[in-house]
Amino acid sequence: MSFPEPFIKLPLLLIDTYLSQKAVTPPNPPADPEEQKEFAEKLEGKEKKDFFTGHYKGIFHAPTVCEIYLILAKAFPSLQIPSVIKFLTPYHPLSAVVDRFGITKTFLAGSTLIAVGSLIRIACFRTLGRHFTFDLSLRKEHKLITDGPYSIVRHPAYLGITIYTLGHLAIQFGHGSWWLESGIAHSLAGQALAAVRAAMGLGIAAMLLRRVPKEDLVLRNEFKEEWEAWAQRTPYKVIPWIY
Q1: Strands, E, within 39-138: which ranges?
Q2: 136, 215 in Cβ contact below 8 A?
Q3: What is the mean pLDDT of residues 130-148?
Q4: End-to-end CA distance of the chain, in Å?
Q5: What is the mean pLDDT of residues 176-193?
Q6: What is the mean pLDDT of the chain?
Q7: Going by C-beta distance under 8 Å and a sequence separation of 6 or more, which residues neighbour residue 30?
Q8: Exposed, middle or buried, 134 (CB in 10 Å: 0-12/13-18/19+)?
Q9: How far is CA 59 from the centre of its chain?
Q10: Total-model pTM
Q11: Separation CA 115–CA 12 (nearest Å)
Q12: Under a CB-based contact definition with an 8 Å cutoff, are residues 33 and 137 in contact?
């Protein structure tokens, strides 16, 4: 028995979503306000807040969730909600749209980037242990961690989220995606969705560029010669041989 390509794609989409959720879920409780004090004095406004909020995650995963639902709705008609189907496939029949959800080169490249980026972040969570919080902080008895991914670049978690974000844009807006194959890409709502997602990606990149030097400054002031030695051994901040 052979399965249609969109149905084979389904577990890959679910794996991508699972890894993505792991990559943006805090591995530890928020740091105490006192532990955030050193960073709070150097960060302003929204930079001090967790940008992986529920609304952010909802918008971030929305195109993938739409694609998963349509694949399941075609395979299991009892799941079909006519108003939702009409909204998600306004220009073509459900069957015709889902049949175009292929495992394209763009999708495979995007899935690979999501896996790599997510696994880098998960490795950072494990390497830093209790020190890793989404709130920038110096924990009690904080230690400067310089091994594992932190021996390659000084801010590998930011490298991971950058790779992960590029992967998501590829699978959600490339060939074989719900956004493109349903025709939504040509509608005002679809273009607005793409614009919001692109703005979110650019916003993350801008935030990282602002945070990295400030994080380095706080760590340098705290660990002094130890940080200087690490910076000499690991000169790149986020991207090896580039930045």
Answers
A1: none
A2: yes
A3: 79
A4: 50
A5: 91
A6: 85
A7: 50, 133, 134, 135
A8: middle
A9: 12
A10: 0.85
A11: 11
A12: no
User: How far is residue 35's CA from residue 131's CA, in Å, rounded to a whole number?
Assistant: 11
pLDDT tens digits for range 31-89 = 676 666 666 555 544 444 455 555 667 777 889 999 999 999 999 999 999 999 999 99
State pLDDT tens for residues 10-33. Answer: 999 999 989 988 888 888 777 676
Q: How far apart are CA 61 and CA 17, in angstroms?
A: 7
On the question of pLDDT at 231 being above 50, the answer is yes
Q: How far is CA 3 from CA 6, 66, 74, 75, 105, in A?
A: 8, 20, 13, 11, 19
Strand positions, DSSP E, the chain: none
Question: DSSP letter at 240?
Answer: T
Residue 4 amino acid letter: P
Q: Quickly list DSSP for 185-212.
A: GGSHHHHHHHHHHHHHHHHHHHHHHHHH
Dihedral angle computed from the Cα positions of residues 195, 197, 203 and 209, in that order, rounded to the nearest 10 degrees? -120
- Within 8 A by CB and 6+ apart from 174, the residues are 104, 106, 107, 110, 180
* DSSP character at residue 29: P
